[in-house]
What we know:
single chain, Arp2/3 complex 21 kDa subunit ARPC3, 74% helix, membrane, transmembrane helix, cell inner membrane
Amino acid sequence: MTMDHAHGxxxxxxxxxxxxxxxxxxxxxxxxxxRPDWLLLILIYWSMALPHRYNILTAFVMGTLLDVLLxxxxxxxxxxxxxxxxxxxxxxQRLRTYSFLQQTVxxxxxxxxxxxxxxxxxxxxxxxxxxxxxxxPTVSSMILWRWVFWVLRRIRRRYKVx
Length: 162
């Protein structure tokens, strides 16, 4: 492995760490229902850009790490992240050719699927109740997708991450 490849991997893992920190960062109660899924957005980008390197295993590891840090039932986000990233990796070539609006809608659908899987698993384990607030993070994440895509793409091109 050359130094450039190692450098690129460090950049990707650093961006995933930043996404993990954004997930854990405290926010005011009024903003909490709208908190975007930072880590999942970053995972979606890297899975679209480099699906041969960052895919379902990366999503599983990051989901497990998030479950541990949140103190949630182990495996809930691991499974949900893995299924969401599976859908992205399965269609990454199509997603790359879509217009930005189409990409945003499909990312929103994947985010909805993620939230519904997390709700379903929490319902099975904790008897959670469904509310419309469950899908507000999807809306805020869709709004931020363009910005996240732009920033990570610039980072990938500037540092020649492959």
